[in-house]
Design brief:
- By secondary structure, the chain is an alpha+beta fold.
- It has 5 helices and 7 strands.
- It folds into 2 domains: about 40 residues; about 70 residues, no CATH class.
- The strands form 3 sheets. A 3-stranded antiparallel beta sheet has the order 4-1-5. A two-stranded antiparallel ribbon has the order 2-3.
- Helix 2 packs parallel to helix 4, helix 3 packs parallel to helix 5 and helix 4 runs antiparallel to helix 5.
- The longest helix is centred in the C-terminal third of the chain and has 14 residues.
């Protein structure tokens, strides 16, 4: 259970501003402080896996959010940097999405070589 300050407050000698998280051990009676409107108790949300579906004219690729973030980070780099990082990628779907997004020739060649090394099909 998280405690979030709604108002400026002080617990255990530490000052907390609205919107900041307060360590649970700092507050002696969270229920009372919540009743006074000083803080709110927030339940931890369960982390569910998410996926991103990328559709091109001919194919659909499903990658995780982390893989999509990695693709977008790679696109911002130079072809030399990307070709080095492609060697560490283990997801064929991630490589295929990168191939759709980044059509630079050296990147394309590195992607094709990596997909072949992983035993995947280039669509």
């Amino acid at each position: 259970m998280k405690l979030i300050a709604l108002k400026g407050c002080s617990f255990g000698g530490h000052v907390y501003f609205p919107g900041t998280e307060i360590p649970a051990g700092e507050v002696v009676d969270p229920a009372r402080q919540e009743g006074l409107g000083v803080l709110v108790r927030v339940a931890e949300a369960e982390k569910e896996p998410a996926s991103v579906t990328c559709q091109t004219g001919t194919a659909t690729y499903t990658v995780t959010v982390e893989e999509m973030e990695h693709v977008l980070a790679l696109v911002q780099k130079t072809p030399t940097e990307i070709t080095k990082e492609i060697e560490a990628v283990t997801s064929v779907a991630e490589l295929q999405v990168l191939a759709v997004v980044d059509r630079r020739k050296p990147v394309d060649q590195a992607i094709e070589a990596r997909i072949a090394a992983l035993g995947g099909d280039q669509e």
